[in-house]
Amino acid sequence: MKPPPFEYHAPDSLEEALDLLREHGDEARPLAGGQSLVPMMNFRLARPSVVIDLNQVPGLSELDAADGVVRCGAMVRERAAERSAVVHERAPLLAAALPLIGHEAIRTRGTLGGSLAHADPAAELPAVALAAEAQLVARSAERGERVLGADEFFAGFFTTALEPDELLVEIRLPEVPAGSGVRFEEVARRQGDFAMVGVLAVLHTADGVIDDARLALIGVADRAVRAREAEAALIGAKADAGAFAEAAATAARDLEPMSDLHGSSAYRKHVAERLVQRALQGAAEAAGVR
Amino acid sequence: MTDVMPQRYTGARTRRVEDSRILTGTGEYVDDVKLPGLLHAAFVRSPVAHATITRVDLNGAREAPGVVAVYTGEELEARLHHDEEAKGPQFTTLATTKVRVVGDPIVMVIAESRYLAEDACDLIEVDYDELPPVATFDDARNPEIPPIFEGRSNVRELPRATFGDVEGVFARADRVVRAHLDVHRHQNVPMEGQAMLADYDAASGRLTLHASTQGVHAVRNTISGALGLDRSRVHVVAKEIGGSFGLKFGTSREQIAIAAASVDLGRPVKWVEDRTENLTVSGQAREESFDLELAVTDEGDVLGLKVDMILDQGAYPGMGAMVPSIMQGVIVGPYRMQALDFASTVVTSNKAAYVAYRGPWASETFLRERMLDLAAAELGVDPLELRLRNVAGQSDTMITGRSLRSCTARESLEKIREVVDVADFRRRQEAARAEGRYLGIGIATFIEGAPGPRGDGPLGRERMTATVDTDGTVLVFTGQMPHGQGHQTTFAQVAADQLGVPIEQVRIVVGDSDRVPNSATGGSRAATMAGGATLHVTRKLKDRIRELAAELLEANVDDIEVEGGRVGVRGTPVSALSFAELATAVEEGRAGEGASLEVDLTYDGGEGGWSGGTHCAEVEVDADTGLVHIRRYVVAEDCGELINPAIVEGQIRGGVAQGIGAVLLEKSAYDEHGQFLAASFMDYLLPTTTEVPTIEIHHLETTPLDADVNFRGVGEGGMIVAPPTLVNAIEDALAPFGVKIYEQHLPPKRILELIGAIDPE
Amino acid sequence: MTDPVQIDLVVNGQPRSAAAEPRRLLADFLRDDLGLTGTHVGCEHGVCGACTVLVDGEPVRSCLMFAVQARGAEVRTIEGLAEGGRLNPVQEALWNSHSFQCGFCTPGFVMQITALLEENPTPGEAEIREALSGNICRCTGYQSIVEGVLRAAGHDVPTAAH
Description:
The complex is a heterotrimer. By secondary structure, chain A is of the alpha+beta class. Chain A is built from twelve helices and 14 strands. By secondary structure, chain B is an alpha+beta fold. Chain C folds into two domains: about 5-80, Ubiquitin-like (UB roll) (Roll), CATH 3.10.20.30; about 90-150, [2Fe-2S]-binding domain (DNA polymerase, domain 1, Orthogonal Bundle), CATH 1.10.150. Helix content of chain C is about 30%, strand content about 15%. Chain C has a five-stranded mixed beta sheet, sandwiched between helices. Chain C is elongated. The model of chain C has no long low-confidence stretch (mean pLDDT about 95). Chains in contact: A-B, A-C, B-C. The interface of A and B includes residues 3, 263 and 275 of A.
């Protein structure tokens, strides 16, 4: 399976990359890590006539934390983020998700921005963006910078709110309250496979009572979702098994996941409920709740 | 008359000679072969399962960049030889009037690169009038659905076989355990797919084929027949083969097509199937369903078995229709059953051809070992004890007539009982259940006729030739075609021991239809047939060495000894010659005109013997997610005398891994339209390092039957018995839910359906 | 810009150069344009790992990179491991452990193992299994490979199975 021919550009500035995107629009695809795009091209399912290689564009790989926000350039490699002290200390949601992404050789090339822009409903990073209430920074040649909230960024099945001439350039992850517990639970057919269902839970408690709760689910809809009703029910509740079970039931209640070869809709819905419980339990333990 | 020689290699974990190539990336697989002017083939393939072709429009593909030729079905057929007497379904090498499977090849494009060939394929348009597909057994039996091959029903009943007094036995039984079992479609998936490079030299009229195959002569015969060439004009060579597991036992339509193209164009043409082609249409196996009745007494005697099976052989002919009769020959296994009734039906469907897949008859072990566990549960008897009660002894004969001499099934069950503390497991199981965790244990026993004992017919023949080269290398020529089994090491071990030379001095020559005897690798035959042939032919070579040395040294042959790689007169060290010196002298005529060190021997398998064993698995099933974790896997096996334990263990573990894949991960899934759903590694899932556990292997001391050769085959056993071992364990784990398992494929969703946690789809 | 591009890079310590279309996958470039057929192609969608090579020291699936993206990079393939014609210690350990059978997956495994041991010279069994979970072998059932890596890492490996 060989990819079809394309016009190749390797711009060495963001400005040039954006100009190329403006010029070619729908005919062009940006190439970041290539771990999602290239297989699709090899299958000839994706046939861009223009490929804009972002790997020579400087300034898109910064990773730092300031004023309670961890800023990640869109081209930060997943493996680099995995090894980053800043990520471990200041972006625990990201740190929890990264080891679950594929395998090391995928993460060596795969990028944070590439994964988010690809918007696979079973991918881990969109759950991180949602749970962290990330800001996703896009740029275009025509309109300059545009900042989108994670909620509006993920628009549907492999679809984001990015315009055809826009590039995602930065992800801003607000830090979660100090002492929060984080757990990412996932069920996949094998180690490293796309999740059939995944849950990212973040809890903060004071005296055993929950005062911050975030639940992001993947594999259960056409995009990653926040279980806001379940989160709201957790606020003010004691962090115990009963509250978690109820939150799990609430989170799963209205889900209508898709069926595929790997899991039926009923399977995903059932497992989602179990995983929410496990993730909340794990987050509570990580937060030091007995 | 044999000299005493120290056994240095046989039985040892000798390092493989192949690895100097494998570990350095210098092994040559078909896709590594580079020739000047090499062309590449790609195929336009059907996206639908069953249809008539109404239009093929090449749309300028012939003129596309880099394209050298395009062949439609008719154009290709005109270049092939047709055997008027051929029986069986009639079809063209590339589809012409109809397509019968998703992936059916229709047009072949030959271009300067695979990239350019695929570009040209994209230009070609084909229109189809879809026909109702046969995607299920019911579809096949549906008279409204037209036959896939003209004039041939989609359903064929095979001859029924009966052994023993079936009616009497079933009448005597205290109860009859009944079940319907389904085995799902899954497939070989070697890491290297099918591949061939056809290189026709117009000047000499010779066609050289670089093949990835299990037997170079079979390729030669098929291609020469298809092209109407004398066999002597077709030369097949094979070096490294990247796995096969039965897939490459035959020659595919695409390979015939590129050979014809090479002859037509006078240029080398290569086809290397990509993973989509390999998964979609290279071949699949194991889709079978069974209605079963097992007659038992309340005390736990297993009296007889009735089997009514149906098998989906796909569209184009493979080996599916042969499988029921092979199953029938071994289904009673090592148990003292007194009656067998075996009925079978084969259906043709719009799916990939049913090809040989490691232990093609394996479902006989699955169904038998499942039925024994179901019976054990009904009778309230422990599954291991039920098997021990009914296992046959070595002086027994199967009701089908086959002798069970050398069958150590009893010993393998006893070994499992020794190394697996079941009582301790049951305690742990109970404690785990209290915590909502589900542990299970399962066993299964198998036998394999690898080659089986002499007693119900000859075991076949295996010819080998051997000689000594003038540099002293012992050359052994075999038609075996190793594709991971390490024959170039194991046969060299045997040869080195016979001749008393270091293994580095032996070279096992494979993969050349001009130089090696006609044979093939498969059926777990090689250990006995080829290991034995190696032993005997090198023994004969040693005799020839002594005779010619006697001639050369003008001595009595009884005074000649071969030792330490030298041959000379006993007690006269100064007379000793190296093998190189002897071979050189023979070549120069100094040992007599016409003298030759070439020896030739055909081996008949000796007394043969059974292979077999018992496997045991301990699993944990997560009732929330349906995931199964294998906590422990133990093998007690007997494959006769081991030539190389490391290689034997590798074969067993690889087979078990495929069994794990079959039960937990792998399914060649089709939908109701015959659309193939598992065309990539995202959907056809293979087990990895995190799904295959450490596998403990206990080698049993075998019962030797033969004075010289007690090596028995082991290649297929792991794959045959691992699926029922695992399914039995999973059912044991789910016993608190009252689950009985009547199928082999248990992905997480299915586990949750079985325990009633979710509704079935 | 669909035309062939000159690609200069360093492979196994040697400067190499060849022209290829932008769409040419790095795996095919190594195999066909540079004649280094040790790297194998098993799936072309990044799952099986047979095509794994090291690019600037990191393991990469060469079927998911275009050769043009490797301009100026340092690439290591299986052909570059042997030291002066002798197997290097990792290769030797794998040989001693009968790690492989048909050999088709082997180059990808060996490069991934090389990357693992360069980062973590003494991994335990669980770490090894996780690190290699992205490489598929159909022949061995993996245990012999894991043993080979344990051996390469200096662990005592029992050769008997029980």
